[in-house]
Amino acid sequence: MENTLIAFQNVWKTYQMGEVQVNALKNVSVKLGRGEFAAIIGPSGSGKSTMMNLVGCLDIPSKGKTLLQESDLAALRGRTIGFVFQQYNLIPGMTALENVLLPLEIQEMDDRIAEKKAKELLNLVGLSDKMQNKPSQLSGGQQQRVSIARALACDPEIILADEPTGALDSITGQEVISILYRLWKEKNKTVVMVTHDLHLAQYARRHIQLKDGEMVRDSPNKEQISPET
């Protein structure tokens, strides 16, 4: 595949649980290119989150290789990958604006440029009137939108979304998936989403299905839908 961003070559991930070894991933090989929207699907315990952690360089394989493994992981995570988690992971004592500014401060961006960019991102996700609100003053959907803005702060190539609507009601979840869809469609971001929700997976262009740690399907989603339909 041209423009490969992520590649797994015969990847295994094994955990030691007491005296028992558990293979969370078994011999997975897959490539993801720039500008893809892929959903990693499968039931609980199928290896989805393990695969996401390896894609995001939060973990390393027990056997096999990942394309991103050879890089400076801290720098890579900061610049190339933006994370959107089910539980938002916002800092409670900081405003929405301060939460989005945080990764820019870590990258030592000029203060005025960073603030301008953070405000633009909050505007992009529809929160221009909530910039000074702390997480406790925001709804779940608004907190998730702050986390998306924060994920975009360093202009990453890849957005990893782990059950991004899992803690939200269906209407708010629709708003969040609409933002991710637009980032893929209009901003040409590579979006990799973990979900057990097959309806949510229908927004993705490609389905990677796991079962018991093995990849059982990798195919285009010919029935892809858009938030407008």
UniProtKB/TrEMBL annotation:
Transmembrane segment boundaries: none
UniProt keyword Lyase, yes or no: no
Domain annotation ABC transporter: ranges: 6-229
GO-annotated molecular function: ATP binding; ATP hydrolysis activity; transmembrane transporter activity
Keywords for the protein's UniProt record, in alphabetical order: ATP-binding, Nucleotide-binding, Transport
Pfam families hit by this protein: ABC_tran (PF00005)
The organism's place on the tree of life at top rank: Archaea
GO CC terms in record: membrane protein complex; plasma membrane
PANTHER family for the chain: ABC TRANSPORTER ABCH.1, IMPORT ATP-BINDING PROTEIN
Protein name (record): ABC transporter ATP-binding protein
Organism: Methanosarcina mazei Tuc01
